[in-house]
Amino acid sequence: MAMLIKTLVANTLATTNLVIRKWIREAIVTRLLITLISLTLLATTTLSADVSAKTLRFAVVPKFYGAFFDQSKLGCEAAARQLKDVECIYLGPEISSVRLQDKVIEQLIDQGIDGIAVAITQSKFLAENSLTKAKAAGIPVITYDSDFDAPTLAEHQDLRRAYIGTDNFAFGLALGEQLKKLRPNGGTLIIQTGRPDSPNLNLRIMGIRSALSGKTYESPPGKRLQNDNGWTEIREPFSNFDQLSQAVKQMESVMKGKPIKADSFIAVGGWPQNDEALYRKMIAPYKIKLNNKEIVVIISDAAPPQLAMLQDHLAHTNIGQSPYEMGRQAIFTLHKIVSDQAFEQIVFTPIKLCTPENAETCTKSVSD
């Protein structure tokens, strides 16, 4: 009997030990799982905090440094201050050169930039080189001031996420409509442009030609005017390749009437006036011609020095863009893209008609 009791006790203790050991093992496993989950949640929270606290670096890349594009830098910096934890990097070539601009973009990619807004100098080259590298690196790209041309957009549909800037065809229409008001009976015209392959400038030229001829063109820059509604272009547009001294020389040849004579001159960019001293010196001998409208002068853009010249009646009209707002909206758009927020794919910035009579008000409107 004693032996039976001893055996029963031994079996009971063995069973109890197994239960206890199993319970201990389960408790340890549960504790380990809780610890692992806690560590994972902590790591995730820390990672999220690091991402949200990161300073985003967005670049605005102009065609070149100058009075017009430097205003986009100010807009870029203003937006960065407003958003906080955002840095504006304004970097471009000293002169207009697609290869130099391409190298600037590659440099920004190597630096790990978070987003790029670029004013396109030459569509095909940039699309096939630095901007393809940006896409491969996962860096969002938008364009400002100058978008890709239509064939490049068709071939590389997902290369740029948005365009911020002037409606360039509408801008050209405004230039042409203003010339019609100043010279209602038609006349002879010379247009000045920058690069002949610049997509935004070709859209402006097409807008001018459409306004004057009343025709619709299939693709920019349209066709040279040949007695269309009383308007004739004396020659194909002057191309100054963004060289200010060349722009002034080309305009001077029109003012002289030698070797080519025309009674109207439109610059689709601000080049001749971007060196104020040089422009004033060139135009001074022709003030009587300007006053008598022997030649009508209409120039794009409306930076403060340009409007000062307009007030001095050294041109008849300036039509201003909003480069400050371009830079500002470019940063807001890039921030939305990176933050997975809804954004507009096309943002047209305002234009403003400036005359000697409203030049002071126009200065405030365009720069605000």
Descriptive account of the structure:
This protein is an alpha/beta fold. It has 2 domains: 54-166 and 324-350, Response regulator (Rossmann fold), CATH 3.40.50; 168-320, Response regulator (Rossmann fold, 3-Layer(aba) Sandwich). Helix content is 52%, strand content 14%. The protein is built from 14 helices and 13 strands. Strands 6, 7, 8, 9, 10, 11 and 13 form a 7-stranded mixed sheet that branches. Helix 7 runs parallel beside helix 8, helix 9 (244-256) packs parallel to helix 10 and helix 12 (304-311) packs antiparallel against helix 14 (359-367). The chain is globular and about 60 Å long. It starts with a helix and ends with a helix. Belongs to the bacterial solute-binding protein 2 family. One of its GO terms (cellular component) is outer membrane-bounded periplasmic space. It comes from Shewanella loihica (strain ATCC BAA-1088 / PV-4). Residues 58-339 form the Periplasmic binding protein domain. This is Sugar-binding protein, putative.
